[in-house]
Amino acid sequence: MSIETAKKLAAYRAVDENLPPNAKVIGIGSGSTVVYVAERIGQLPNKDDFVCVSTGFQSKALIIDNGLHLGQIEQYPSLDIAFDGADEVDAQLNLIKGGGACLFQEKLVASAAKKLIIVADYRKQSKKLGENWHQGVPIEVVPIAFTKLIGDITKLGAKTVNLRQGGKAKAGPVITDNNNFILDADFGEIDDPIKLHTELKQLVGVVDTGIFSAIAEKAYFGEESGDVTTWEATVIEESK
What we know:
It is an enzyme of class 5 (isomerase). This is Ribose-5-phosphate isomerase. This protein has about 240 residues and is of the alpha/beta class. Residues about 235-240 have low confidence and may be disordered. The chain is built from 6 helices and 15 strands. It folds into 2 domains: about 5-125 and about 215-230, 3-Layer(aba) Sandwich (Rossmann fold), CATH 3.40.50.1360; about 135-210, ACT domain (Alpha-Beta Plaits). Helix 1 (about 5-20) packs across helix 2. The strands form 3 sheets. Strands 3-2-1-4-7-13-14-15 form an 8-stranded mixed sheet, with helices on both faces. The chain has a 4-stranded antiparallel sheet with strand order 9-10-8-11, covered by helices on one side.
């Protein structure tokens, strides 16, 4: 069984086991596994009874492409549930997110939801954040502050701090949906994600960080074997 099939199974199970039958507002995040979340929600016979709030441009397209009703967080500041992906997940369900540069809107939607469910593949599992995700913690920053912040973040213990570039498709830095920059700060393995997030967030010019702690309720992983693994907070369960 392919990893894509496993991703699909994980996403479908996440929706089937967690979506409240009377949900009115659903958050849909980004990532390769969330594609199948939107697909599953789009198959529901009552999809005209609720709206879906996006976390960025990609998830907005997923909502529209699956025939779902698009809503904005400004209109619906309270959500029944949100589904999102992650770049890395530890056993306590601390997350690193922001590889796709949507971290602020993802955190806004997650914080507005009564329940956050993560869907990903087995490569995102780790014992500690930073164990397998080596690109660094994404940090969304106000553009005029980025130079000073590189120094500030280095003083907090970062091995490297890089301004994320647009690559071949764009000359210059990545611009977020909120017109900010992204700094990727490599701290190695992170012993205390909450402490690090707090220290970073207190720096002038930091909008938010890609460390998500004490916010996800459950994570579903598509395994290479085709099985689906579920993690709940500090309890790890496996089901096939």
